[in-house]
Amino acid sequence: MDFKLTEEHIMIRDAARDFAKNELLPGVIERDEKQEFPKEQIKKMGELGFLGMMVSPEYGGGGMDTVSYVLAMEEISKIDASASVVMSVNNSLVCWGLDTFGNEEQKQKYLTKLAAGESIGAFCLSEPEAGSDATSQKTTAIEKDDHYVLNGTKNWITNGSTADFYIVIAQTHPEKKHKGINAFIVEKGWDGFEIGPKEQKLGIRGSDTHSLNFNDVKVPKENRIGEDGFGFKFAMKTLSGGRIGIAAQALGIAAGAYELAREYSKVRKAFGTEIMNHQAIAFKLADMHTSIEAARHLVMKAACDKDNGENYDLSGAMAKLFASKTAMDVSVEAVQVHGGNGYVKEYHVERLMRDAKITQIYEGTSEIQKIVISRSILRD
Ligand code: CAA
């Protein structure tokens, strides 16, 4: 395996690093505290091409590979995981899904705006009774004349109130179980579409998470993605790529926390010397660095699999499982290295620790990743 980055990869990584430092770092603590969506910053990310990185240039995207995307995700996530989840959902769950499975009209009407960052997308699969058990969709989309009638509730939707376009998964033929599910593009503002209150979250507090209600929303037939009954496969295929994005987010949170801890250990003194000179601290940093490198290799392997046209269900699930555990472990240790300072907001590591937890939950919990991994390795 050759993980050597090209000049273009390095340029993209450096651009994301500079953007994160110059545009996301200022105010990140306050946005977290006030649960404030990084509106201006996301607008700039769109202008710089970070919201439609892998979309074909003919639809206004960057035409970049997945390696470029994960490099950028890591850098943005080191500083602001609330901004990186917007980036991840827009790139992997919304743009990729439309680019790969949408028809020409859908791409012209929706993808071009999403890829340019002029519009933001949301992906609506989870429901009050269908989180991990995603086939148990209770939201219905019943065919009537030239449209579908959508009814139901979606939960924990990232970009819930800031999105313009929503990909909504719903059951059309309950008797067919998952084979009767469809995916639809729904626009904000359509009659009967209500946005519920904002969730008060432990971490990624700048991201905008809501429940959504659909009461007899009329969705034109042309807004169904793919053939009748393709919705569950659409969701699974899209989430497989999404998991690589979240793995990169987790890697970034871990790397961000580690870098802060490493630098702190060089300046903080205890017992007459910088704390890096105490083996108790140096060994923690060694462990953190090693698990981050291992996570980075898994993330890169999954990204390369996707770029090389290989199946990435297994490598993506392994990357997410391991990188999210790394984010959790490393951020807890980063707080420990900082001691009392780690527990207060201005040192950033407590926020990264809170942000890390969601990477073990969304886009498939760690337990779901183990289902995907174990089924894959036991299949043959
Ligand atoms: N690609 C293509 N098809 C797939 C697939 C994949 N990766 N994974 C499953 N399928 C297909 C199966 O082949 C099967 O189809 P057939 O019957 O035609 O063969 C169908 O989907 C059903 O699959 P299973 O029988 O495996 O279904 P299951 O109920 O046993 O479990 C699961 C599937 C993997 C557990 C799935 O339910 C799952 O991934 N759950 C987690 C859901 C999730 O990740 N939610 C995240 C919400 S989105 C989010 O968090 C976004 C955000 O805002 C940040």
TrEMBL record:
Cofactor(s), names only, from the UniProt record: FAD
Acyl-CoA dehydrogenase/oxidase C-terminal domain location: 231-378
Domain Acyl-CoA oxidase/dehydrogenase middle: from-to ranges: 122-217
InterPro entries noted in UniProt: Acyl-CoA_DH_CS, Acyl-CoA_Oxase/DH_mid-dom, Acyl-CoA_Oxase/DH_mid-dom_sf, AcylCo_DH-like_C, AcylCo_DH/oxidase_C, AcylCoA_DH/ox_N, AcylCoA_DH/ox_N_sf, AcylCoA_DH/oxidase_NM_dom_sf
Annotated keywords: FAD, Flavoprotein, Oxidoreductase
Protein name per the record: Acyl-CoA dehydrogenase
Domain Acyl-CoA dehydrogenase/oxidase N-terminal: start-end pairs: 6-118
Family the entry assigns: Belongs to the acyl-CoA dehydrogenase family.
One Pfam family matching this protein: Acyl-CoA_dh_M
Annotated organism of origin: Salinimicrobium oceani
CDD domains from the UniProt entry: SCAD_SBCAD (cd01158)
